[in-house]
Write a structure and sequence with these properties.
Helices cover 36% and strands 16% of the residues. The protein has 6 helices and 5 strands.
Amino acid sequence: MNNSRPLAVFDLDNTLADTAHRQRFLERKPRDWAAFFAAAPHDPPLAEGVTLALESARECEVVYLTGRPERCRRDTLAWLAAHGLPEGRVWMRRNDDRRPARSTKLEILRRLARDREIRVLVDDDELVCQDAERAGFSVVRARWTAESGALKEAQEGEGRT
């Protein structure tokens, strides 16, 4: 592995994968997390995010940083391959980790930055983006999908994605 290339770090949900079709599972009480994640393999790709990942792969090693739980790894890897995204390490949260996305993601970004340059983080979560910028990372906000209040609440309040 060539460790001299900088990293381009991409979020998945609403950055590369359009989750709109499965938002309904988070809008009910109680939220149906099993159904929400089970529907992830059917996410359509987001052209803007996919293009940016492919362009980034020319100069950077692309890695993926998601709030999805580890139990979704097989589906996630299959989805990335099916949509022609660059191969790269996928960082996921432990199945029992319920911290806010901004906590888990910043922790991993800092770990990665110890021995690699991080060229950019691409994420749709404004709180993740703000915290990453405060920590000195270059950020591109993925603003190419409609914001979901239910997903935002879940990311921040329930540490589920």
